[in-house]
Amino acid sequence: PTECFLSQPEEKQESAVKAKKRKKKKISDVLQKSAPKPGVPADLQNLLSQHFGENRSVIEIEELKLSDSCFLPANDLTHSFSSYLKEICPKWAKLRRSHKEKKSVVMLVLCSSALRSLELIKSMTAFKGDCRVIKLFAKHIKIKEQMNMLEKGMFHIGVGTPGRVKALVEQDALCLNSTKYMILDWNWRDQKLRRMMDIPEV
């Protein structure tokens, strides 16, 4: 009996220690300590190989690797969004004029949330000029509305969330053949201090 009595408090102590350990491993705590740094091509490559590593063959994973020439210079966090876009896309006016295709955009910006998408649309005013921007997120906008807009109108920039963009591409409502630039909102953190790639659904 004494052994039984002894084992109970030990278990409690162990579970208390485990609970403490779990509390320490909150993602927001870890992210709070890490300073923001610009994303680099290797970050995205690692993310792709982690995601597809389990269910793809070695040859398929090799095919997923993008050469460094596919990547634009990352925002070094000194630029505003408009000034960054001006730097990476100096011939925007010419690209905008030559774009005539419906169901497509020249530039696609991916963010982690609808609110962040709206924030970026407002902050690109100096860059976009009179070109048309379409909101590609689920909040307050039905997918059929977006499909109709893409079919009838012509848009130059699309700003939205990965989930809705994926759904539009899968339903052939958004064609990426004429897309020249894809911008990932890599460093922005939400209220839980998660970046876009820290969210499992993304």
UniProtKB/TrEMBL annotation:
One of its GO terms (cellular component) is nucleus. It comes from the Eukaryota. Residues 1-38 are annotated as: Disordered. It holds the Pfam family CMS1. Gene3D superfamilies: P-loop containing nucleotide triphosphate hydrolases. Transmembrane segments: none annotated. PANTHER family: PROTEIN CMSS1. This is CMS1 protein. It comes from Cardinalis cardinalis (Northern cardinal).
